Recover the amino acids of this structure.
């Protein structure tokens, strides 16, 4: 729930349902997006405890779920038709059918675990937090100062820049330890894919022409380096170092279509 100018605004993925709207807002909607159906009442104390937890779940996974709420005092006939005998009762609908339900209060973790048995949950992507003052220290190669400033920030806010600084300082082991400690949600982000590629890149021992291309990638000139690597691979299809460097570079292109294009080109060379 969001408050704006003393008014409460309900997110679009949290709706109140009546008997009249049930078919459209629950049955039909569940054919596109799974629906959590919450039966509650004002006098029900456990309902009051469960409601904010359900809100938190669907607000965390807005692309995966809709929360439909039924006030059983106002919709007694609907509650009877659905066979509700205890409050709160929560049902999960998918493809127009109830696939599971529970009664009583559960923690957010318990609800997420229950949901994951039936549907795939995808947390809403958050834009990574970048401290531009620290980024200026990184850009001017003041790595020790940048690292000190990052250590003073909350870990979730600082993680991507800290990994970057460790790699720039050649602290590959420290960067790998930070990556290994990422949460499941963090590992699903594009920043995690890029961090993984950068760590792989740092671990590749390259010299001469290959080293120059590796340096080019590290400086952000990824596409020209990829083209150079593909040319090298064409000349020597068995060069494992070139293959490794290519694979590490694809996630750094910042364009999934372009990355897919170059992956296909690499595949065609090797087939």
């Amino acid at each position: 729930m969001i408050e704006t100018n003393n008014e409460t605004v309900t997110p679009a993925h949290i709706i109140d349902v009546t008997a009249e709207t049930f078919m459209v807002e629950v049955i039909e909607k569940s054919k596109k997006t799974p629906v959590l159906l919450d039966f509650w009442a004002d006098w029900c104390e456990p309902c009051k405890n469960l409601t904010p937890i359900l809100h938190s779940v669907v607000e965390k996974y807005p692309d995966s779920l809709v929360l439909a709420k039924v006030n059983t005092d106002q919709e007694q006939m609907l509650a009877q038709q659905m066979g509700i005998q205890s409050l709160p009762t929560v049902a999960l609908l998918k493809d127009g059918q109830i696939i599971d339900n529970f009664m009583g209060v559960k923690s957010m973790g318990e609800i997420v675990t229950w949901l994951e048995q039936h549907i795939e949950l995808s947390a809403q992507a958050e834009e990574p937090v970048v401290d531009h003052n620290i980024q200026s220290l990184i850009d001017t190669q003041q790595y020790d100062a940048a690292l000190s400033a990052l250590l003073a920030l909350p870990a979730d806010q600082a993680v991507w820049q800290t990994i970057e600084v460790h790699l720039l300082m050649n602290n590959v082991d420290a960067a790998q330890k930070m990556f290994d400690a990422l949460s499941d949600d963090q590992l699903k982000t594009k920043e995690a894919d890029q961090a993984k590629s950068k760590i792989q890149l740092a671990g590749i021992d390259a010299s001469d022409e290959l080293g120059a291309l590796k340096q080019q990638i590290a400086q952000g000139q990824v596409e020209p380096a990829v083209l150079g690597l593909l040319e090298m691979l064409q000349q020597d299809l068995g060069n494992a170092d070139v293959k490794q460097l290519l694979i590490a570079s694809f996630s750094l292109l910042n364009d999934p279509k372009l990355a897919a294009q170059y992956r296909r080109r690499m595949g065609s060379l090797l087939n």
Residues 204-271 form one domain. The beta strands are 2-4, 7-9, 14-16, 35-40, 66-71, 89-94, 97-103. Confidence is low (pLDDT under 50) at residues 1-10.
